[in-house]
Every structure is written in structure tokens, then in C-alpha cells.
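Human: If only I could read C-alpha cells as easily as an amino acid sequence. Underneath my words sits a plain record pairing an amino acid chain with its C-alpha cells. Take your time, and here it is.
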Amino acid sequence: MGEVYRAHDEHLDGDVVIKILSLMPPSGRTPDPQARHALAQEARALSRLNHPDIATIYDFARDGDIDYIVMEYIPGESLATRIAREATPQEQLLSIASQTLEGLAAAYSHGITTAT
């Protein structure tokens, strides 16, 4: 749904992640206002969460036809990279799964769900 970049926030004097959400339809028409509204609601709801297994949202803004989220940068490698690099012991996989489920449960308990 978009692209993710690492950036340096001069105001916070630290690294952040900028997720650019392109809501421009392939037809080139104006982005769907309902989609933008839903995205803004989701960003606001996520910004209220404070959980160790969920990245913190710092800002949600719009520049022209592009909406973006500024969020916490968490250093480290992706799970896909880690698993591809080496066999991961079952205990570590269970710990990762547990942390993921705890984060999802926290989001769900605050009414944040995703449609598939």
C-alpha cells in the first residue's frame, strides 16, 4: 500500500520511519475520500497505543495527494532476513510468535482490526 523509508527527524534529533501511503487510484483520479478518512482514523487509533510490540506513531500528514505516517524507527533485521540467514530455534520462533500475538491482541482490544 506504500513505501517505507528511514529518515532523520531534525526536530526529534533521531531516526524515524516514514511510510508513504499512495492512495491515488490507477486511473489518476483524485484519491478516494473514504479511504483517506479510514486511513486517518487508523493512524489516530494506532497513535494512542503504547505497547512494546507495536511501533509508536508520531505523526500522520498529507502533502498534496500523498498521505504519510511518521513512526518509530526500530533497528534490526526483518524476521524474513533472520529466518533466511540461519535456522531459528523453536524457542525463539515461539517467542517471536508470542510477541506478535500480544501486539495484535493489544491493537484488537483498542478496536483496531484490519479487513482482508
